[in-house]
Amino acid sequence: MPATLWLCCYLPHLPLEVFKLEDDRPAAVWEDSGGRSLISAVTPAAAAFGIHPGLPTNAALALCADLRLYRRDQPMEHEALETLAETGLGFTPWISLDYPAAVLLEIRASLSLFGGLDALMQRLRTELEDQGHQVLLAAAPMPFPAWLMASSGLERTVENPAALRSGLGDLAIVRLPIERDTVKRLAKAGLHTLRDLWRLPRDGLARRYGLALLRQLDRAAGREKDLPRLFRTPPVFEAHRELAAETESLAYLRPVCAALLEDLAAFLRRHDAATDRLELDLSHFRRPATRLELKLRYASRDPERISMLLNERLERTPLPAAVTALSLRCDSLQPYRAHETDLFAADTPGALDWEALLEQLQQRLGHDALRFLGASADHRPENAWNWNASPIGIAIGKERRPLWLLPKPRPCDPTRYRLLPERERIESGWWDGAPIRRDYRVAVSPEGVRAWMYRELDGNGGWYLHGLFA
């Protein structure tokens, strides 16, 4: 019996599942591929219209005008996999996310605990399905052949390494992570399955198709050992301090908070990390604890800075009763980045630290009390700006646009204006039911005011005034 047994939980519909879609409505996920917008996953209702992966989005909309399109969100998919990996920690500590759309668990030592392989697989399947995921399960002595079977739709268990070639022999060659040109050349030679390749001499395959093909065949047959990276849950800081006597005095609470923050700073230094959010619970006798959530404008591990902000919150938080204990928790860790300073900057008493000032205002007035104008990832002028709790936006295009937009575009006569050469065509919004197709021009009114107007490319082709430049 081999020392390891890897169970692959493959999620074939993960790109759709992260959006929590309804199966009875036609919807699809798309992504950019080679400069084209292509469908990558579809719901059964969309498939009934003939929509399939690889279809251009405009062709999909032609087949179903009511199709809902969602851009693929790979960070959200990875977050979902991490959540499932945490579920898997209830079965084994040996978990890997190295393979696409899959969670792999090394379960050999867990079989007796859960009553055998079938019972373990059934319990794991139930837990993942309860979280809204369809899952395919396959097991093998090594992670790669387990993933290869599950991702090919084969729910098999091959425990003996010597049986891998027979267990995977009917898999299509296209399932191997090799160059598409190699797959086409093999198909022209009449080679379509792994069994076809395993029947041929290795040296001939290497000469004609390269060593990369042989390596993937060896991985599938278990001849090459894979050492996947193990999943680790993000570290969490938790600390608790009992008070010698209950108190409502902030003068007594501040030193205890400072000691907790020093422990937090040491924890963050050990993990080369910083944090932008933490929670402080103030316990009371026979009352629910008072919880303070502290949000920082940028991640830090400076205990003095965090202590100053925490004191601001404490001074403005009414305590319903005396405090008996303090608990500090931090689970929002980010890689630490040291802030650069100017070697020749003048450190004058009147110089304002705007970041510190803004943070203090947010602690006094509330995190959402301050708003900053930012750019949105949307080309439509009506949706291109937003208000954020922090001045973080995305890079905007090089086209010149006015900051002052009219609440609603007004019909106008372009002959009254002098049109300048600057122009911008905007065609966007087809994926969310609010499409626009416009040609924008910068123009000068008889009074010398620079205006931003557009001509509709659909409908009546009319001209509209949309904004004014300062």
Key structural traits:
Alpha-Beta Plaits; 28% strand; alpha+beta; 14 helices; Dna Ligase, domain 1; five-stranded antiparallel sheet; 470 residues; 3 domains; 19 strands; flat
Written overview of the protein:
It is a single chain. The chain has helices at residues 14-17, 44-47, 57-63, 74-88, 117-130, 143-151, 164-168, 180-188, 194-198, 202-209, 211-221, 250-270, 303-315, 354-365; strands spanning 6-10, 27-33, 36-42, 68-71, 95-96, 102-106, 136-140, 237-247, 273-284, 287-300, 323-330, 333-335, 372-375, 385-388, 404-411, 418-428, 436-444, 450-456, 463-468. The chain folds into 3 domains: 1-18 and 73-233, 2-Layer Sandwich (Alpha-Beta Plaits); 237-335, DNA polymerase, Y-family, little finger domain (Dna Ligase, domain 1, 2-Layer Sandwich), CATH 3.30.1490.100; 397-468, no CATH class. Helix 10 crosses helix 11 (211-221) and helix 12 runs antiparallel to helix 13. It is flat. A hairpin with a 2-residue loop joins strand 9 and strand 10 (287-300). It is 29% helix and 28% strand. Mean pLDDT is 87; it is low at 340-352. With 470 residues, it is α+β, with helices and mostly antiparallel strands.
